[in-house]
Amino acid sequence: MDREEAWAKIQKLCPDIEKSDDLAWKLRDRWILSNKAVQRIAAHHKIIVTYGEPKELMGNIYIRATARNTVTGLEIETFGESNSKNTIAKYPIAIAEKRAHDRAVLKSTEVYVDFYSESESDDWKKPKTKEV
């Protein structure tokens, strides 16, 4: 998917979102949305996300998230996880929650196949551009 196709889909999800390389970017073969973009999509669709208690399994912190898209009625359940191998952050529960939220929102708007959230991987952060 090229930039114009990606932005057409993003603006269909959230018509008032402006085109910005800080909100969405292509990284290798996938499109990444910033957490800010995902938050705006959630607000536009009035998506309600609830969370289970954080748990630990084999060194992974994980949190269950349930999202209900009040516009379409679609309700999904997904998880966010964090461990010392997939994040450099010192707050694994908050990272797991953020990942769960963004996955839940993208899945409840049925675009998780096309877009991923930057919060899902430290490797998916927007590449820094050199200042001239």
SSE layout:
Blueprint: H1 3-13, E1 24-27, E2 30-33, H2 35-44, E3 47-51, E4 55-57, E5 60-69, E6 75-82, H3 92-108, E7 115-117
Helix pairs in contact: 2-3
Give your account of this protein's structure:
This protein has 132 residues and is an alpha+beta fold. Helix content is 29%, strand content 28%. It has 3 helices and 7 strands, in the order H-E-E-H-E-E-E-E-H-E. A hairpin with a 5-residue loop joins strand 5 and strand 6 (75-82). The chain is globular, with a radius of gyration of 15 Å. The two termini are 29 Å apart. The model has no long low-confidence stretch (mean pLDDT 89).
What sequence of helices (H) and strands (E) makes up the elements? Answer: HEEHEEEEHE
Roughly what percent helix? Answer: 25-40%
Instruction: Determine the strand fraction and express it as a percent band.
Output: 25-35%
- Spatial gap, N to C terminus: 29 Å
Apparent shape: globular
Secondary-structure content class? alpha+beta
Regions with pLDDT < 50 over 5+ consecutive residues? none
Q: How many alpha or pi helices?
A: 3
**Mean pLDDT across all residues, rounded?**
89
Radius of gyration: 15 Å
Biggest pleated sheet: 4 strands, antiparallel
The total count of strands amounts to 7
